[in-house]
Design brief:
Radius of gyration: 26 Å
Strand order of the largest sheet: 8-10-9-11-12-13
CATH class of the largest domain: Alpha Beta
Mean pLDDT: 90
Number of domains: 3
Number of helices: 17
Low-confidence stretches: 251-261
CATH superfamily of the largest domain: Succinyl-CoA synthetase domains
CATH topology of the largest domain: Rossmann fold
Length: 476
Amino acid sequence: MFEEKLKEFEPIFYPKSVAIVGASATSIKAGSLWVWALSSAGFPGLIYPVGSSGGRIANLEIFPNLRLVPGEVDYVIVAIPRQSVLEILDDCVTKHAKAVQFFTAGFSEMDAQQGHKLEEQMLEKARQGNVRIIGPNCIGVYCPEHKIPFLMGILGESGSVGFVSQSGGIATKLVTTGIARHINYSKGVSFGNGIDLDASDFLQYLAADSKTKVIGAYLEGTRDGARLFNTMKEVAKVKPLVVWKGGRTEAGAQAAMSHTGSLASSAAIWSAMLKQAGAIEVHSLEELTDTLLIFQQLNHWQGTSTAIIGGLADGGGGNSVSAGDACMENGLRVPPLSLETKQELSELLGEVGSILRNPVDVSQAQFRGLATLFQAIDLVARDTVIDIVLIQEDMDILLPIYSQKGLEEINEFFIELGSRQNKPIIVILPPGSAEPERLQIEQKLLAASIPVFCSMERAAKAIYKLNQYSCWQEAK
């Protein structure tokens, strides 16, 4: 499906050469930052800075004109004022560039009449010269595998999650948040006004890309709703597609119009379209990254019968009650443990001070040592009525009781438990006063492919969306 996009987009995500128009040896401009970003990231192809003042940057010659670049150019990044974009497009056509990305802004998002007219002129020139346009008003492509960062230069590890974003700011946050949460991207793109290549084109490419297993999208609007709907429907058949629609309210829609020039339909229409297409709708950056994380780690896993384990130290009753509510209210089941498991837990922990149903309070284990705590958690995980195990870990309570060494042992056990049985182990690590220790534990767990969430609500929502897609796949 959409295999023709692989060849067409090869020079976009895997260019052999990149020219950056708007570079300067003496001033900090966007073009200069792009040269430094590509150079520092270790881009394996040729980098051609272009700027009228000439000179050198990052030990590279700055060519005064794109036409004077000595070699072939696959991909062009343009960061100059809009009054020069038509001339630059003529240069791109002369150099037989495959694609040009316009960081340049000030088009239909700012001036509906004049800006739109200029976009039409750009599109006409590009089509006559067989050049594809990304943007304008965007930060272009991101490909860790090929060492192509966004403007800020942060790269991250290559992985299996692809994303499409109309907004450069959201695209940047997806990368930085992804790096912090070990969401590893295969490809990403910010396409801005999307006058030529738009969301549909990039979604089709990611659907065909064998290195991409799940796709996230931030969209503000579309110029061709029917095409986008049909594309999403085809994409969702083969890969999970998680979509955050910006501009759902009147205020948001007005902001979208002045941000990327996008006309936004009503929230109800978008929600109905996404549901019919089989896409997974989310409503925030946090929900988008939560869902991408769970799909990356658990892929097509399915199951809603959840065990909630709390009270690793001190009483966990209140937290267990609220955790049970969070799971049930977000589509998960919290079934009673089997009689056999409850009996074994009773013998291990005792009845007094323990909650041995589900959610499970194992706080009595603190008086009997870590080995007892690990045995209790293992009993719950092995229960045949349970599909998934959620463990509440509160650093503010655990650290004074078990010390840093004890915490390390506890989380090593979680990692070992997750590696030896096929039920997902998910850890809830709420923020608190022990934030440095919490972040250290979070990174360790994420690196071992244990999903981590800061609240039970966020974890439950993400798990439910994973199940939604699995059920939709089975029913189609």
